[in-house]
């Protein structure tokens, strides 16, 4: 849809999700990433893996997640 290869573009983010998968917090259902009921409280943590700008701005301040 946007002219990118999702798995290649987000390769680093997808690698970072392995820990969530191992803990049963997220799972792949076909091409969709689903957050389990147990993982819902960590939705923000999952989304942060896909944020290309997080941590790139010098002296950036973000609210903390648990």
Could you write a compact summary of the structure shown?
The protein has 66 residues and is α+β, with helices and mostly antiparallel strands.
Helix content: 25-40%
Q: Give me the count of strands.
A: 2
Enumerate how many helices there are, as a single number: 4
The N- to C-terminal Cα distance equals: 34 Å
Biggest sheet: strand arrangement: 1-2
Mean pLDDT: 85
Q: How is this structure best described in words?
A:
This is HemN C-terminal domain-containing protein. InterPro entries: HemN_C (IPR010723), rSAM_sf (IPR058240). Pfam families: HemN_C. It contains four helices and two strands; from the N terminus they run αααββα. The protein is of the alpha+beta class and 66 residues long. It has a domain of 43 residues: Arc Repressor Mutant, subunit A (Orthogonal Bundle), CATH 1.10.10. Strands 1-2 form a two-stranded antiparallel sheet. A hairpin with a 2-residue loop joins strand 1 and strand 2. It is flat. It starts with 5 loop residues before the first helix and ends in an 18-residue tail after the last helix.
Strand and helix layout:
Blueprint: H1 6-9, H2 11-16, H3 18-22, E1 26-29, E2 32-35, H4 43-48
Antiparallel strand pairs: 1-2
């Amino acid at each position: 849809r946007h002219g990118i290869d999702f798995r290649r573009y987000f390769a680093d983010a997808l690698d970072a999700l392995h820990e969530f998968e191992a803990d049963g917090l997220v799972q792949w259902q076909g091409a969709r990433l689903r957050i389990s009921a147990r993982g819902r409280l960590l939705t923000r943590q999952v989304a942060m893996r896909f944020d290309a700008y997080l941590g790139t701005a010098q002296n950036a301040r973000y609210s903390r997640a648990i």
